[in-house]
Amino acid sequence: MITHRIILYLALILFWYTGRSQGFLKAEGQSIVNEKGEKVILRGMGLGGWMLQEPYMLKLPGTGPQYSIRRRITELIGPRRTAAFYEAWLANQTRKIDIDSMAAWGFNSVRLPMHYHLYTLAINEEPVPGKNTWLEKGFALTDSLLAWCKANHLYLILDMHAAPGGQGNDLNISDRDSTQPSLWQSAANREKMIALWHKLAERYANEPWIGGYDIINEPNWGFEAPADKHGQRETKNAPLRQLMRDITAAIRSVDKRHMIIIEGNAWGNNYRGILPQWDENMVLSFHKYWNPNTLAAIQPFLDLRAKYNIPLWLGESGENNNTWYRDCVKLVESQGIGWSWWPLKKIGTNNPLEVPMTPEWQRIVDYFAGKGPRPSPAETEAGLDSLVHSVRLENNIYHKAVTDALLQR
Questions:
Q1: Which of 138, 160, 241, 367 could form a disulfide with 119 if both were Cys (CB 3.0 to 4.6 A apart)?
Q2: Mean pLDDT score of the chain
Q3: In a 3-state reduction of DSSP, which class is residue 67?
Q4: How far is CA 362 from CA 85, 278, 371, in A?
Q5: Which CATH architecture fits 42-49+95-174+190-342+392-406?
């Protein structure tokens, strides 16, 4: 009995040590390192489509942001049954088996695209203007995901993908309602964004398996010239820099240890006016889609890294073929840059997991596309049920060639 207890005790010590041995990630010069000072190359996947649906991932043409998808479903089956569908979606689209599988395949990190509305009310929904109502749903989902990541020794990076009011004119990626004030048109939205990051940092300050805070995903806004809708020609980016500084200050008031990850304007690529960095533990993220896998394509970011002595992270890339994937990963890793691919799963190919299209869901897709008759409530429920069933990992199609390309096997 004593021997068994000693063995168990030693096993628990070993588990504790191996689970915590890497510790918090931090920026050190031009590299991301762990608490041992070892350089860390993040190799991860983004959980696109879980907290925030984009129409292309569901094969929905022209239906717009998630709120409009939800509204059209509500027109077919009413608000109560629509709410039940979204609860089922959140419970099934990402589960522990997904994170277990990512770890088994060889990934070491996960990027969580968060929708603010799972954590707090919209400003026009607040019972008391200027106050923040906190919703347990988003925090509970994040807690569960963190537990799954910790069990697999994967770093979890929190990414504010849909900010209060929406952070750009690319409406789908932030679920922005263009009839309401955007993040940049409303001080109340910006104050809510800052308060939400304070709340998150306070909650996760002592969690070493939180890899960092990606504080605003793909801002795309013309501050100087509204006609420059996505901020590609912006030269100052003053409002973006100021908001990120304010968010950083709120985080640092409760959390001194986690990396702050910043993204420039124009989908994370226009850094004019953003730097120099204002925090010693900061990482610059860039996004890379559909361009050549050459040094010239990423040289502007390499120049920023060298000039400001700041680490780089390819926070998003994907939606291409396996040859492009392999070449992109080889390119950035040759420069000591980690990455997060987009997304883990969707209806369609070129991702590790393919969600099969079902005839029942196709009926709804055809109706939304104007190619089929309006489904009955029973047909709509059957379509939604089939989608929830199809999105579960055990019903997905695993494309090993994709993970082999990403992990250079």
A1: 138
A2: 95
A3: helix
A4: 17, 49, 10
A5: Alpha-Beta Barrel (3.20)
What are the residues facing 110 on neighbouring strands? 45, 156
Q: Which long-range contacts (CB under 8 A, 24 or more apart) does 297-301 make?
A: 298/331, 298/332, 298/335, 298/337
DSSP E strands, 102-192: 109-115, 155-162
Per-residue tokens: 215: 């504080």
Cis peptide bond prior to 276, omega within 30° of 0? yes
Asked if 176 and 165 count as a contact pair (C-beta separation under 8 A), the reply is yes
Count of residues for the chain?
A: 409
Can you give the pTM of this predicted structure?
0.94
CA-based end-to-end distance of the chain: 46
User: From CA 66, how far away is CA 154, in angstroms rounded?
Assistant: 29
* Token digits of residue 329: 């990963």
Which H/E stretch holds residue 137?
Answer: helix 136-152
Amino acid at position 344, single letter:
L
Whole-number Å distance between alpha carbons of 216 and 255: 18
Alpha-carbon span 167 to 184, nearest angstrom: 7
Question: Which spans in 205-337 are helix H?
Answer: 238-252, 265-268, 295-308, 322-334
Domain spans of the chain? 42-49+95-174+190-342+392-406
CA-based Rg of the chain, rounded to a whole angstrom?
21
Can you tell me the mean pLDDT for 60-86? 96
DSSP state of 116: G
Neighbours of 241 (CB within 10 A): 18
Q: Pairing relation of β-strands 31-33 and 345-346?
A: unpaired
Token pair 């089929």 is found at 372
Neighbours of 112 (CB within 10 A): 23
Contact between 375 and 76 under an 8 Å Cβ cutoff? The reply is: yes
Q: Does residue 217 surpass a pLDDT of 90?
A: yes
Residues 342, 48 contacting (CB under 8 angstroms): yes
Indicate the burial class of 381 (C-beta count within 10 angstroms; 0-12, 13-18, 19 or more).
middle
For residue range 4-19, what is the model confidence (pLDDT) as tens digits?
A: 444 334 333 334 434 4
pLDDT at position 18, please? 42
Phi first, then psi, for residue 358 (nearest 5°) are -105, 155
**SS3 sequence, 343-374?**
CCEECCCCCCEECCCCHHHHHHHHHHCCCCCC
Q: What is the amino acid identity at position 347? A: I
